[in-house]
Design a protein that fits this description.
The complex is a heterodimer of chains A (116) and B (115). Chain A is built from no helices and 11 strands. Chain A is mainly β and 116 residues long. In chain A, the strands form 2 sheets. In chain A, strands 2, 4, 5, 6, 9, 10 and 11 form a 7-stranded mixed β-sheet that branches. A 4-stranded antiparallel β-sheet of chain A has the order 1-3-8-7, with no helix packed on it. Chain A is globular, with a radius of gyration of 14 Å. Chain B is mainly β. Chain B is 0% helix and 50% strand. In chain B, the strands form 3 sheets. In chain B, strands 2, 5, 6, 10, 11 and 12 form a 6-stranded mixed β-sheet that branches. In chain B, strands 3-9-8-7 form a 4-stranded antiparallel β-sheet, with no helix packed on it. In chain B, strands 1-4 form a two-stranded antiparallel sheet. In chain B, a hairpin with a 6-residue loop joins strand 5 and strand 6. Chain B is globular, with a radius of gyration of 14 Å. Chain B starts with a strand and ends with a strand. The chains are: A mainly beta (116), B mainly beta (115). Chains A and B meet through strand 4, strand 5, strand 9 and strand 10 of A and strand 5, strand 6, strand 10 and strand 11 of B.
Chain lengths: 116, 115
């Protein structure tokens, strides 16, 4: 069974630009979550999508947005990039079990974004 | 308030010895899950082990076991027979089931295995 895939793996952008990152979950998984990892702030939750709907959102500005497609693939978009957006962006997929539980969560390899 | 606390920023262990990585958590939810992940220098987060709050037995996965003490709100990871490839960052995380798939992470523990 293929794992979680993320594209691209590395990205270099300049301030003010926008970027779109993609995540394909494990087959059969319906929940996709996104995380930002920086040396200063650690791992922070961005948002979670389940059945094409945002189910949960972290404390990030509106420049960060996402969506999920009918095949559970997800994209996140960051507009008007700032230097502080440089980070490793990780997505995780999980089964959406009964009662809202998510079960085990598996991460992709991440996209390393550098903003110059 | 910090919900996941890992008090050991760095640890050393001799190859083939066992090591315990500490994790305490804080939640008022009755239903929650606790996770441990390994992150090598490549950056990928590798799932190691999961413990549900209602699980009566401590979780085990190969050389990994989770010492779950619910009353003390601790979920320590025990790695038996350490290997050089175990050198990495280790993160404890919690999911409160009322919040869907959102994971809250600790700051991590950097484990170095010495030959």
């Amino acid at each position: 069974k293929a794992g979680v895939t993320q594209t691209p793996r590395y990205l270099i952008k300049t301030r003010g630009q926008q970027v779109t990152l993609s995540c394909s979950p494990i087959s059969g998984h319906r929940s996709v979550s996104w995380y930002q990892q920086t040396p200063g702030q650690g791992l922070q939750f961005l948002f979670e999508y389940f059945s094409e709907t945002q189910r949960n959102k972290g404390n990030f500005p509106g420049r960060f947005s996402g969506r999920q497609f009918s095949n559970s693939r997800s994209e996140m978009n960051v507009s008007t990039l700032e230097l502080g957006d440089s980070a490793l962006y990780l997505c995780a997929s999980s089964l959406a079990l009964a009662g809202g539980l998510s079960g085990e969560q598996f991460f992709g390899p991440g996209t390393r974004l550098t903003v110059l | 308030a910090q919900k996941i606390t890992q008090t050991q920023p760095g640890m050393f262990v001799q190859e083939k010895e066992a090591v315990t990585l500490d994790c305490t958590y804080d939640t008022s939810d009755q239903s929650y899950g606790l996770f441990w992940y390994k992150q090598p220098s490549s950056g990928e987060m590798i799932f190691l082990i999961y413990q549900g709050s209602y699980d009566e037995q401590n979780a085990t996965e190969g050389r990994y076991s989770l010492n779950f003490q619910k009353a003390r709100k601790s979920a320590n990871l025990v790695i038996s027979a350490s290997q050089l490839g175990d050198s990495a960052m280790y993160f404890c995380a919690m999911r409160e089931d009322t919040l869907g798939g959102k994971l809250i992470f600790g700051q991590g523990t950097e484990l170095s295995v010495k030959p």
